[in-house]
Design goal:
elongated, alpha/beta, two-stranded antiparallel ribbon, DNA-binding, 9 strands, homodimer
Chain lengths: 212, 212
DNA sequence: TGTAAATCGATAAAAAAATATCGATTCGAG
DNA sequence: CTCGAATCGATATTTTTTTATCGATTTACA
């Protein structure tokens, strides 16, 4: 019997990052309090939905007539999302996309530290803005040494399965794949596929539907 | 009262790309028929869910004891996802991520043609593998000329709103944003935010939860 | 050719999520 | 100080999505 750590629904969890972005924009604009109806209108959600979501994470109740303290909410959301934990990640596949991840400086706010990239081509080996790019052979060695748990897979589709296997072998337990291919992972390894092309295509299809 | 164009649930629609990836892998392996239970096991879904999803798109029913014809299903899914339609897209923000999108050759399978990129910095202007990179001033002109409907937003967070406004002004009606910022769009414009860092962070959090 | 095994598709039930309603609370203006 | 407007949070309802069950069909094999 856990005290108050209620069950956070999967759908709500997916909305949290959007709240966070919105609240940070409000904070930057100097807003101190926001009401749930205000959030709802700006974010195109129902006010009830917002209230329910915030009730899941808010450390203190909202004040009638005022709303929620923006700064407080941001902290609560970040904690709920686990951004306060520090995690080491690596990139496998140092192409354009992979290198973009390697040097992207937005991860630190999320508790993620991308420590290195790996590539099968010797031509890519080196470094970028101080972040090293190693040959694939060293994946296991470096991953174990740096305690890397997270892997970002950005290789061409035909190389995806092999690269993925190497990551699993190196002890990586969570993989975010951008490779346009179906890959198989063993039990105990979490895999999420972000098919950017498919995402874009579905967005396009959606627009067609509602537009014309 | 529409004939047979049944309502495709939103959740099912999101699963379609994954089916597609899986089926293409099977096809490449020379498999002619797959049963829904086989798909379910490989993809970690329930067999009933798979059958319901496939029933929404399949142009011909599955055969008992055999399953569905792989090639046929692939075609059906692609049609349902709108990949047969041709759409022009552009990239706004020609940094590393933006350039990765510009030259990514996987979009053509999805009916998307990325025709150009735009950047505010004159240093980025030029071309990459035959794809032009224009200055932001020419966005509207080019977008209208090329009939661009889709925009991929890959600028730093602080430039996102301004760039987004320019895209809307240029007649773009669907925007896929990778900028880590909250942006506001007018009615009639579809916006989807892909917060890569948040996605990675949530994956990490998920693993923590189930792992330890 | 006949039998058995396994699949499909449809109907029904369960679970989850979104939405609606209502009283209690409290801030701000008069 | 009092009144009114607006918000919160909780309960209830509706909708959506997932999961379960069952008979019909068909292929493979003896």
């Amino acid at each position: 019997m856990e005290g108050k750590t209620a069950e956070i629904s999967k759908a709500a969890f997916l909305r949290f990052p959007a709240y966070l972005r919105y609240l940070k924009a409000e904070e930057a604009a100097g807003v101190g309090y926001v009401s749930s109806s205000e959030i709802a209108e700006d974010m195109h959600l129902s006010a009830v939905c917002v209230r329910k979501d915030l009730a899941l994470v808010a450390s203190e109740p909202g004040k009638p007539r005022l709303g929620f303290a923006v700064g407080k909410l941001i902290g609560d959301l970040e904690r709920a999302l686990g951004y306060h934990l520090k995690t080491h990640a690596c990139v496998v596949g140092a192409g354009r996309l992979g290198r973009a991840f390697l040097v992207y400086d937005g991860f630190e706010h999320y508790g993620i530290d991308v420590v290195a990239a790996f590539d099968i081509s010797p031509a890519q080996v080196g470094a970028l803005r101080g972040k090293p790019i190693y040959p694939m052979e060293r994946l296991k060695e470096i991953a174990e040494r740096e305690n890397v748990r997270l892997g970002i897979l950005t290789v061409p589709g035909e190389a995806a399965q092999q690269a993925c296997d190497a990551m699993v072998e190196a002890g990586i337990t969570a993989i975010l794949s951008f490779a346009p291919a179906y890959v198989r992972v063993p039990e105990g390894v979490t895999l999420r596929c972000e098919d950017l092309a498919a995402s874009l295509a579905s967005l396009s299809a959606e627009t067609e539907k509602s537009g014309a």
